[in-house]
Design brief:
The chain has 243 residues and is an alpha/beta fold. It has seven helices and seven strands, in the order ααββαβαβαβαββα.
Amino acid sequence: MTLLTWFRSALFNLYFYGWTAVLTIALSPALFMPKNFGLRAARIWVGGVNLGLRLICGITVEVKGRERLGKGPALIAVKHQSAWDTIALLSICDMPAVVLKRELTWIPLYGWYIMAMRMIPIDRSAGAKALKDMVRRAKAAAAEGRSVLIFPQGTRVAVGDKVPYQPGVAALYGQLGLPCVPVALNSGLVWPRRAFRRPPGKITVEFLPPIPPGLRREPFMNTLEAQIEAASDALAAVASRPN
């Protein structure tokens, strides 16, 4: 990591945590307002984060194929490489109900926003009970016209690493009866998992062709994993080529 990259990364981290703290307090009235206010608050937050990435670190963002989401609710299955994913996809996907680990709700203020926006926290130690609770909450969100977003590998995965896809996404696909929109990305190249550096580059998020409802479990899982992994690898390869 060059000295310039280190300096930019340090400056961005200071900006990110400062921006988040100020906005979390300033927009706290949104906790008590309808969901649309929460969406606006999330867009302001995401916009500020992406602005900081561009101006401080030289990182830009491109979204491809968003029209594939359609107008009704869908199950959105997203590759997870970076903390950026959980931040930006709230705005990109118009405030879906995101399946996330319960521990995030324990964070002061931030956790309150998660609960106010009716996300889907799960206790990963609860086994089958957690799966049933996730499906119940997801059905309630879909009945309100909201999409449901899940990271099918269940954790952030570094670029190039392979981690099995978990059964939660198959349970939601089978129970919700919604099309599943796979999403590939390469955010781990510029906002790596558990890393300080923010090297310049471009984050690309690509919505892939929807998988229609009704497939059996194994064909669905095989199709989902093949599409997301191939597209994410391709995005990483393109971004890594020298100019």
